[in-house]
Amino acid sequence: MIFIDEKNVEWQNLKAMKNIAAIKDLANNMKVKLDEEKPFGIKPDWYSTSINVYKKHVIFGETLLDDLNEDEQKNLAAHEFSHLKYHHFYWIIIVSFGIYAIVSLVLAKYVFPNELSLFIGLIPLFAMFIMIGKWQEYQADMKAVSFTKDKKSMLSLLDKLYQMKTKQDAGKLPPPTIMERVSRILHPSLVNRIRRIEKQPNLWFLNPF
Description:
Elements: H1 20-29, E1 40-43, E2 49-52, E3 57-61, H2 62-67, H3 70-85, H4 88-110, H5 116-120, H6 122-148, H7 151-169, H8 178-186, H9 190-199
């Protein structure tokens, strides 16, 4: 889940999506409401995905889609739909800033009765933001599998994402953007995501790292 500039996004030519009808059916089955005019977009020369929680559309990187088969694309879409379905963006904001407000108020009253409490409160804010972000990625993976009923394709998808990341780090692909680097902080390692699906599909909440 990465937020990007939508200027170069193609909304009409969606040929990179190998079975758009099946992905639309999946969204309906998951009861995910997408934008009627622009439910999906394709961004050229991009290796990731993005959702717009306000406009309710999903943007796929064309280069990433070209690397995936039909079932892997379906699992990728299901993962992004899960972020929308379970309102992950709003929850991470509400909980993180809620913790920040409580900690800052307690510090201001009992420890640092000045502006210092606001800065110290940023520590649990960022910690919660990262932890919740990782939990949400695990949940999105597990929910995607529960809707597609295709664990094999999800594992194959994650393996390809891992190979892509390895190539980016080795300089064989264009380096990740700043937003992609930030997103990596909020994501568990791909190795751990694969491990959760293989061995502990229902224990995504136990270890965010």
